[in-house]
Write a structure and sequence with these properties.
Keywords: Disulfide bond, Glycosidase, Hydrolase
Helix content: 25-40%
Structural class: alpha/beta
Number of helices: 11
Oligomer: single chain
Family: Belongs to the glycosyl hydrolase 56 family.
InterPro entries: Aldolase_TIM, GH, Hyaluronidase
Number of domains: 1
Protein name: Hyaluronidase
Shape: globular
CATH topology: TIM Barrel
Strand order of the largest sheet: 1-8-7
Largest sheet: 3 strands, parallel
Disulfide bonds: 45-319, 208-216, 336-347, 341-389, 391-400
CATH architecture: Alpha-Beta Barrel
Strand content: 5-15%
Length: 408
C-alpha cells in the first residue's frame, strides 16, 4: 500500500521513525541532488539589464528561449492537453463543462496525438499538468468552484427526480469524483506510457492548508490519503509554495513551505513550485524569503524547486538576488551530498521540523551588489549532527557508500 508521510510531529521519536522510512528518488540531473528549474523569461535579464545568470554554471534547468514548453520542462494548461472539461469565466460549458459530461475517449485520443507531436519519444524532462478549474475531491470545490457541485447536483436530479436532497448530493458527489478521477488518472497513465522517462504530475498536489503554524490540518491529511490513486500514477509531485504578502520576512513562511511538501510516496521526486513575487502582487521576495522557499525545500530533501514567473518579473534586483540564493542552494546541497553521502544520495534534516538549514559549502562569491555570498566551509560533524543521507536507488548504508546487490 501507499503510506502517507506528513512532517507535522515535533517529537524526536517521530523524526527517527520517519527518516528510516524514506526512500528517495534519484537525482533529476546526474550528480546533482537539488536542481532549480527556471520557468520564467530569463533572457530579459540579459537584454534589459546586462545581467547574465549563467544558468548552465549553476546546473539550472531551462528550456531553449525560456519557453514554457520544451525539452527540459513542459506545462500543459487547460486548453493544451486533450479536451479538459471546465466552465469558462462566462459560465460557458467547455468540453462538457463537468467531468461527468466530458468525452474521456476523445480527450485521451487527442492528448496522445498532441504529446506525440510536442515531445520526443525519449523526453525525460518535467511534465506538469496545470488543471485548476475543479478539484477531484468534492469538498475541495468551494468558492468559485462550487458551481461544479451545483451542476453535478442538477445532473443527479435528472437521473433520480424522486430522490431526497441528501441522496441527490450523495449521488452527485459519487459521480463527480469518479469522473474526475478517470480524467486525471487516465491522462497520467497514458502520458507515462508514451513518455515513461518524463516526470509527470499535476500542479498543486499534494496540498496543505496549515495556516502557517507548521502543521497540516487534519482534513488535509485525510483528503491527501483519498488521492492515493493520484500518487500511484504520478512520477513527480509539484506542490505549490507560493507565499502570500503577509508572510514577507516571516519565519512562518518556512513553516508553510515545510508542510506543503509532505510527500505521500517517498520514491516520487518532489519539486515544489515557488514564485518570485508574493501571490497576487508584484512585490518580490527578498533574500530571506527566498531562503525560506528554496533553502527550506533543499534542507527537506526535495529533488529541486521550480521557479515560476512572468516577463514582468525580470527586474534587475530580482535577477541578482535569485542568482545569489540559487548559487548557495545548489552549491550547499551538492557539497553535503559529496561530504556526507559519497555523492550517492541527497542530504535531508534528521528531524524535518528542526528548522536546520544546510551549513554553507566551500567559499563562493557573487558579484551582486544586493547580496554578499562569501562563506566558509563547514565542519563534517555539523552535517552529521543535523542531516542524514537519503540514498539514491541502488545505494545503501548510512553514508550511501554501499552498492545494493541487483537481486536483493
Amino acid at each position: 500500500g501507499i503510506t502517507s508521510l506528513y512532517w507535522n510531529d515535533q517529537s524526536k521519536l517521530f523524526c527517527l521513525i520517519q527518516t528510516t522510512q524514506i526512500i528517495p528518488s534519484g537525482p533529476i540531473l546526474q550528480d546533482r541532488p537539488f536542481v532549480v528549474v527556471w520557468n520564467m523569461p530569463t533572457a530579459q535579464c540579459k537584454r534589459r539589464y546586462n545581467i547574465d545568470l549563467d544558468l548552465g554554471d549553476f546546473d539550472i534547468m531551462e528550456n531553449r528561449h525560456q519557453s514554457f514548453q520544451g525539452e527540459k520542462m513542459t506545462i500543459f494548461y487547460r486548453d493544451r492537453l486533450g479536451k479538459y472539461p471546465y466552465l469558462s469565466r462566462k459560465g460557458m460549458k467547455v468540453n462538457g463543462g463537468i467531468p461527468q459530461l466530458g468525452d474521456l475517449s476523445v480527450h485521451l485520443s487527442l492528448a496522445k496525438t498532441q504529446l506525440s507531436s510536442l515531445l520526443k519519444p525519449n523526453f525525460k524532462g518535467l511534465a506538469v499538468i496545470d488543471w485548476e478549474e475543479w478539484h477531484p475531491l468534492w469538498e475541495r470545490n468551494f468558492g468559485a468552484k462550487m458551481v461544479y457541485c451545483r451542476l453535478s447536483k442538477l445532473l443527479a436530479r435528472q437521473e433520480g427526480p424522486d430522490l431526497s436532497e441528501r441522496a441527490i448530493t450523495s449521488l452527485a458527489k459519487q459521480r463527480f469524483e469518479a469522473s474526475a478521477r478517470k480524467y486525471m488518472e487516465e491522462t497520467l497513465r497514458s502520458a507515462v506510457k508514451e513518455h515513461p522517462k518524463g516526470l509527470w504530475g499535476f500542479y498543486g498536489f499534494p496540498f496543505c492548508s496549515n495556516n502557517y503554524t507548521g502543521r497540516c490540518q487534519k482534513r488535509n491529511k485525510k483528503q491527501n490519503d483519498q488521492l492515493s490513486w493520484l500518487w500511484g500514477q504520478s512520477t513527480a509531485l509539484y506542490p505549490s509554495i507560493y507565499l502570500p504578502r503577509r508572510l514577507e520576512g516571516s519565519v512562518d513562511a518556512a513553516l508553510m513551505v515545510r508542510y506543503s511538501q509532505s510527500s505521500p510516496l517517498h520514491t516520487t521526486p518532489v519539486l515544489p513550485y515557488a514564485r518570485l513575487a508574493f501571490t497576487h502582487t508584484l512585490t518580490f521576495l527578498n533574500e530571506t524569503d527566498l531562503v525560506h522557499t528554496l533553502g527550506e525545500s533543499a534542507a527537506l530533501g526535495a529533488a529541486g524547486v521550480v521557479l515560476w514567473g512572468e516577463v514582468k518579473f525580470a527586474k534587475s534586483m530580482v535577477c541578482n538576488v535569485c542568482k545569489g540564493v540559487t548559487l548557495l542552494c545548489v552549491s550547499d546541497t551538492h557539497h553535503c551530498s559529496l561530504q556526507l553521502c559519497h555523492g550517492n544520495g541527497r542530504c535531508a534534516r534528521r528531524c524535518p521540523s528542526s528548522g536546520r538549514m544546510f551549513p554553507p559549502g566551500p567559499t563562493v562569491t557573487s558579484e551582486s551588489e544586493e547580496i554578499n555570498l562569501i562563506v566558509e566551509s563547514p565542519r563534517g560533524d555539523c552535517l552529521h549532527s543535523h542531516f542524514l543521507c537519503l540514498c539514491y536507488p541502488g545505494w545503501t548504508g548510512q553514508e550511501c557508500q554501499q552498492k545494493e546487490e541487483e537481486n536483493s
